[in-house]
Write a structure and sequence with these properties.
heterodimer, A: 250 residues, Rossmann fold, 2 domains, 4-stranded antiparallel β-sheet, 9 helices, B: 1% strand, binds adenosine-5'-triphosphate, binds magnesium ion
């Protein structure tokens, strides 16, 4: 447990009478690629919101490298290295692709209380941004307005933004959602390359991708983790098959 | 491309710079006073454009900063302190202070609540001024003359004051122009597009928005300092909610988020008001519908219309 990168302790969240996150406890060691699967409405996105600090938790704790970040607001968690992407694409459509990523670099290095000098011309910000774009395969679109990208390219851009923040932990909420087969192959190859380098918590419906990428998989149903294990263990787990894969137990 | 985009503000400043020469052939003091007033309001409108156009924060209490700046001049000079070297820093500091307090509270709210709370703070400033019986209360007070600089009456002559105001406008414009493309300005513009994305990139937006609010309030305090000197009079009328509304209309009329649009908007607003009120006493019956039409049909304001024309006409 000494090398736990991200720990969730008894996390809960309710909306009125509806319990969306129900006593979630999970420890993810440094460098692990952990996937969370679960049916629609299981509370996966809500859990990411809680871990990232977008919404407050009802009770429980989030620990990053053993440090309690439960009370830290979203932007400050990002600065601690806890970075997320969104299920519904969230970019700055009026900015160039490069500027979208350069802003993430700007948040990470130096101060943004600088009132003179053209930010868009700062090589110190643009060079790391171009490197991140290169990594996701979007380098040739750097000068395009982000709003004009295809859906798949926007997903790539969101990953580039997240990478430019140099995360210790990357929380990915269905990065493959809505991408075509070619685009998702590019993204899966990218995730494969990131595996081991960064601790990753991935939410994904694409089972093939999940079982190929993840070191361990947790299954979330009605806000509870009903099983955690290697992909093989989870696939064979009876409860999972009943609750999630919808199979009859033979 | 760059040259064409910068052409309009340069044209505006050239017009302001040369106007007094033309005015000397006509009703000089009337024209100087009118255009000085235009430039003073242009500074206020440019400062509002920073938060309204670039920050997407609809402040309905911006005139209060003009009032704070103007009252700093009025109150100090009524105690015999007439030097700009003291008056101006006090006017700016008072506006900045008012902005820090009101901004820190208002920026905790969003949308229509932000509009309401800035309006409420504006009204508080207005009623505070009304209650200052020692400084004219309701009626305001007449200054015994314009501010001095190290003992010199440097803006006593209308033409000198005109050019001082023009320099202030150009300086304010240049400052804002630099600001909006800087690292800081990029954060503000990003927050306008997608605040959630900016937070998830790692920007605590409240800090940046408070900073831009204070910068805008302080600049508007400069406009207040000039306003008091232009009229040689200060009164609570400078900070009515109607005045705040007029500032918003100036920015919308000129075109949001371009800075020089705000200058054009202030000029169009005040010159139309002046022109129409000379023709008929029912000028508001013409002015009102005109504003509605511009907002409805010239999306992007006058700047938008100019750019569309240029887009159609040129290559
Ligand atoms: N702000 C909210 N107010 C009330 N209920 C909410 C709110 N946000 C989410 N919910 C409910 O919480 C449950 C879990 O939602 P969540 O979006 O976390 O599911 P999910 O597992 O991400 O689903 P999907 O696979 O469709 O993305 C749903 O029943 C949803 O209706
Ligand atoms: Mg979801």
């Amino acid at each position: 447990m000494a090398d736990a990168m991200l720990s969730l302790r008894h996390l809960c969240k309710s909306y009125g009478a509806l319990t969306v996150t129900d006593d979630v406890t999970l420890t993810i060691p440094k460098g692990e690629f952990h996937a969370i699967i679960g049916p629609n409405g299981a509370g996966k996105t809500t859990l990411i919101h809680q871990i990232s600090g977008l919404i407050p938790s009802g009770s429980g704790h989030v620990l990053l490298e053993g440090e309690d970040v439960t009370r830290l607001p979203l932007p400050l968690r990002v600065r601690q290295g806890l970075v997320r992407s969104f299920q519904i694409t969230s970019i700055l459509p009026g900015f160039s692709v490069l500027e979208n990523v350069a802003l993430a670099v700007q948040a990470r290095i130096g101060t943004s209380f600088r009132f003179f000098g053209r930010a868009a011309a700062e090589e110190r910000l643009n060079a790391p941004a171009r490197a991140a774009l290169d990594e996701v395969g979007l380098a040739d679109r750097a000068e395009t307005r982000a709003g004009l990208l295809s859906h798949g390219e926007k997903r790539q851009l969101e990953l580039a933004i997240a990478l430019a923040a140099e995360p210790k932990v990357l929380l990915l909420d269905e990065p493959l959602a809505g991408t075509g087969p070619e685009e998702s192959a590019v993204l899966i190859a990218l995730l494969q390359r990131l595996k081991g380098r960064i601790t990753i918590l991935l939410i994904e419906h694409d089972m093939e991708a999940v079982f190929a990428l993840a070191d361990r998989v947790s299954v979330l149903v009605y806000g509870r983790i009903i099983a955690t294990g290697t992909p093989a263990e989870v696939r064979d787990n009876v409860d999972v098959r009943v609750a999630y894969l919808g199979e009859e137990v033979t | 491309m760059m040259i064409r985009r910068e052409a309009l503000p340069l044209l505006l400043f050239a017009f302001f710079a040369l106007m007094p020469i033309a005015a000397s052939f006509g009703p000089e003091s009337y024209l100087l006073a009118l255009v000085t007033r235009v430039m003073v309001f242009a500074i206020a409108a440019v400062s509002l454009d920073l938060i309204l156009g670039y920050g997407a924060l609809v402040s309905f209490g911006h005139a209060a900063f003009m009032g704070v700046g103007a009252y700093a001049v009025g109150i100090l000079s009524s105690h015999g302190i007439k030097d700009t070297a003291i008056q101006l820093p006090v006017a700016l500091a008072a506006s900045a202070f008012f902005a820090v307090i009101t901004g820190a509270l208002s920026l905790r709210t969003k949308g229509v609540y932000f509009i309401m709370i800035t309006l409420a703070f504006g009204q508080m400033a207005f009623f505070l001024a009304v209650s200052l019986a020692a400084y004219g209360g309701d009626d305001g007070m007449t200054l015994s003359g314009r501010s001095q600089l190290f003992g010199f009456d440097f803006i006593k002559r209308d033409r000198a004051f005109y050019y001082v105001t023009l320099v202030a406008l150009i300086a304010a414009y240049a400052l804002c122009r630099s600001l909006v493309v800087s690292r800081f300005g990029r954060v503000i513009r990003g927050a306008r597009e997608n605040p959630q994305r900016m937070a998830a990139i790692g920007f605590p937006l409240f800090h940046y928005q408070l900073a831009i609010y204070v910068i805008a309030g302080t600049l508007c305090g400069l406009a207040g300092f000039l306003m008091a000197n232009q009229a040689e009079f200060v009164s609570p009328a400078y900070m009515t909610w109607q005045r705040s509304g007029e500032l918003i209309v100036m920015v919308l009329l000129g075109g949001l988020g371009s800075l020089h649009g705000a200058i054009l908007g202030a000029a169009a607003f005040l010159l139309l008001e002046e022109g129409l009120s000379g023709i008929t006493e029912h000028w508001k019956l013409i002015f009102g519908p005109f504003l509605v039409l511009v907002v409805l049909f010239a999306r992007g304001g006058l700047i938008g219309a100019v750019e569309r024309l240029r887009g159609k006409g040129g290559a």
